[in-house]
Amino acid sequence: MKRGSTRMSSTNSDNQIQFYQDAPHDCSYIAGRQAQNIYPDPNKPMTNHLYSQLIAHGFRRSGDHSYRPNCGECQSCVPVRINTKKFKLSRSQRRCLSRNKTLSRTILPAEFKREHYDLYCRYLTARHVGGGMDNPTIESYSHFLISDWSETRFIEFREEGKLISVAVTDIVENSLSALYTFFDPDFEARSLGTYSILQQINLAQELGLTWLYLGYWIEDCQKMKYKQNFSGLEGYIEQDWQALKS
Question: DSSP readout, 9-27?
Fold first, then answer.
């Protein structure tokens, strides 16, 4: 936590939590803007139960840390989730499933695998050059995706034994949270990002879970446009979840 951070209080169903705000820094999504995040008290042990409450109030996980944008007058970052009970496939999503019908799915516990890491490096090299995530190390990969307290799963998608894609998802109370997906750049035409979300919606439905959290959505951010394509989408606006699209 940076010096000069401010402290705020909030109350959940269990007890009071102190939150801290960091200093302004360059926004990763909108050029020319400054951003700030709030974090729960780092001295309070994080648990999956507590995170389940935080994520329902717009927080997100990166490694062991959870955060939420808190940028003063800018409210562009909207936490979003899919209501899996209201979700319906679109025509393009049906075509995506058809294109990838030969893929197998395997759900694994969250642990380091060299095969996953090598695919992650290939993906970042092809998709995120100069974005701050390229040139990853084993430590940065593990610190980003794996947490000591979360119930995380790595979902592998393979074709004839070849690893094509990995979706990292957290299991929280009554929900899944799509943390990150990386895939073989040679298969970009297969719309594997969309396919990953569709598979996580399917998994949530299989487990009887109501929501799939997708992190943040910014209307003017081209990289986030895909989130608008899913029915049953809800946004956390003015401290309440509201339908964004019927």
Answer: EEE-SS-EEEEEE---EE-
Give the closest residue to 177 by CA, choosing from 150, 208, 149: 150
Q: Which of 168, 202, 216 is nearest to 87 (CA)?
A: 202
Q: What is the per-residue pLDDT across 50-68, written as a single tens digit (0 to 9) for each?
A: 999 999 999 999 999 999 9
CA 48 to CA 142: how far, in whole Å?
18
Which pLDDT does position 204 carry in this prediction? 98
- With contact defined as beta carbons under 8 Å apart, do 234 and 241 qualify? yes
CB-CB contact of 17 with 11 (8 Å): yes
CA distance 242 to 215: 15
List, for residues 166-215, the tens digit of each pLDDT value.
999 999 999 999 999 999 999 999 999 999 999 999 999 999 999 999 99
Count of other CB atoms within 10 angstroms of residue 177: 25
CA dist 81 and 164 (Å) reads 25
Cβ pair 232, 84 in contact under 8 A: yes
In this prediction, residue 134 has a pLDDT band, given cuts at 50, 70 and 90, of low
Say if residue 28's pLDDT is above 90: no
Domains and CATH numbers, the chain: 6-77 (no CATH), 82-243 (3.40.630.30)
Residue labelled with tokens 């759900």? 107
pLDDT tens column, 204-221: 999 999 999 999 999 888
Residue 34, phi then psi, degrees to nearest 5: -100, 145
Both tokens assigned to 1:
């936590």
Phi/psi at 201 (5° precision): -60, -45
